[in-house]
Amino acid sequence: MASGGEAPEDVSLDWASTSLDLSSLDLAKASASMLDSGEDFEVLHEEEEDDLSELPPLEDVGLGKVSAAKKASRESGSKGAAGEGSEPAEEWLDVLGSGLLKKKTVVSGQGVESRPLKGQDVTVRLRATLEDSTVVEENPGLTFTLGDCDVMQALDLCVQLMEMGETALIMSDAKYCYGQQGRSSDVSPDAALTLEVELLAARDAPDLELLSGKEKAELANRKRERGNSHYQRADYVLAINSYDLALKAIGSSSKVNFSPEEEAELLEVKVKCLNNLAASQLKLDHYEAALKSCNCVLEHQPDNIKALFRKGKVLVQQGEYSEAIPILKAALKLEPSNKTIHAELSKLVKKHADQKSVETEMYRKMLGNAGSRPTKCKDKSSRTIPWKWLFGATAVALGGVALSVVIAARN
């Protein structure tokens, strides 16, 4: 979502005494400002304003754009697997029907009735390799909540189809692994993965009502961190899902009394989740939802600079310039040295001035001939005054003549 293609003109700002030309010392201070505190990705850089309209939700990224090298690698892998065990290629299950995610059972499990259910906590043994057989991840006991997108989609989707004790091979396109962003230095962008997975255990998730305040905060933080990971890969739909799950855990009813410290910690996590949720909603142009998330933060923390900034941006996108200006002024007052807020406010002031000029011109055209009408009325009035005197004089003369006739007749 882009906030504007052209750089704003030089606008004099009476509300900010700090110049836009900040010294290196000021920039160093700004980098440790309120905007950078407490959240993994919530730093208000200008890169966040780049047009990300070409980055659709995860389910639409890269569809039908699998490279020839990846296709050849998967085909050779399938042939190799079939050759080793003398197994037909049909044993590969096309999970989504697109050929991008396939699963094959290597060791059978305990039957279909032993499959885990969504919402359960499952434990698996995982080994992930690249197309050149390089091992990029190995975990003998990975535990996650099934269906919550706590892990890569390939694993989350396929484990739902596994039986207890089953070992399976999963061949996945990058779309359902680490996507176009990759993962640091060990998984390159658009890298397909092969997963070897063994389902070790499945159990019901803990009852949220029985969790202590600390346990709830830890659970919510895990969901939030996963949401941050999705956000950094531009998977905003999945990020929203993770933040919603974190907020659901925090807001669930409880049969346990919390200490003041636990209450404060839960509030802190809640505010972070709401701020991150608003950022994700703003990326997807969900303005009403983003405004609601910002307002929830400001109910708890009226001076939260990130919530103020994003609320101002939402109002700008909705064309509510007069409402957005005081919001961004309040954010700038909290941190006068922040160049991002300063630039956003400068652009907003110019837009608002342009809007007022257009409205003034429109009203002028609508009422353009109104000023000449009183003059016409005045001219008309000036011409009618002599006629009134004339009629009055005539009436008096006729009255005098009639009176004379009456007197003469009586005599």
UniProtKB/TrEMBL annotation:
Query: What EC class does the entry list?
Result: isomerase
Under SMART domains, the record lists: TPR (SM00028)
Q: Per its UniProt record, what Pfam families does this chain match?
A: FKBP_C, TPR_19
PPIase FKBP-type domain mapped to chain residues: 119-203
Q: Where are the TPR repeats?
A: 305-338
According to the UniProt entry, the coiled-coil residues are: none
Skewed-composition ranges (Acidic residues):
39-53
GO cellular component terms given for this protein? cytosol; endoplasmic reticulum membrane; mitochondrial envelope; protein-containing complex
Q: Which SUPFAM superfamilies match?
A: FKBP-like, TPR-like
The GO annotation for biological process reads: apoptotic process; BMP signaling pathway; camera-type eye development; dorsal/ventral neural tube patterning; multicellular organism growth; negative regulation of apoptotic process; neuron fate specification; positive regulation of BMP signaling pathway
Its keywords, alphabetically, are: Isomerase, Membrane, Repeat, Rotamase, TPR repeat, Transmembrane, Transmembrane helix
A Gene Ontology molecular function term of the record: identical protein binding
Its catalytic activity?
[protein]-peptidylproline (omega=180) = [protein]-peptidylproline (omega=0)
- The reply on keyword Isomerase is yes
Question: What's the EC number here?
Answer: 5.2.1.8
Which residues does the annotated region (Disordered) include? 39-89
Q: Which residues cross the membrane?
A: 387-409
For whether the record's keyword set contains Transmembrane, the answer is: yes
- What PROSITE patterns does this protein map onto? FKBP_PPIASE, TPR, TPR_REGION
**Protein name listed in UniProt:** peptidylprolyl isomerase
Q: Which organism's genome codes for this protein?
A: Sphenodon punctatus
The gene designation is FKBP8
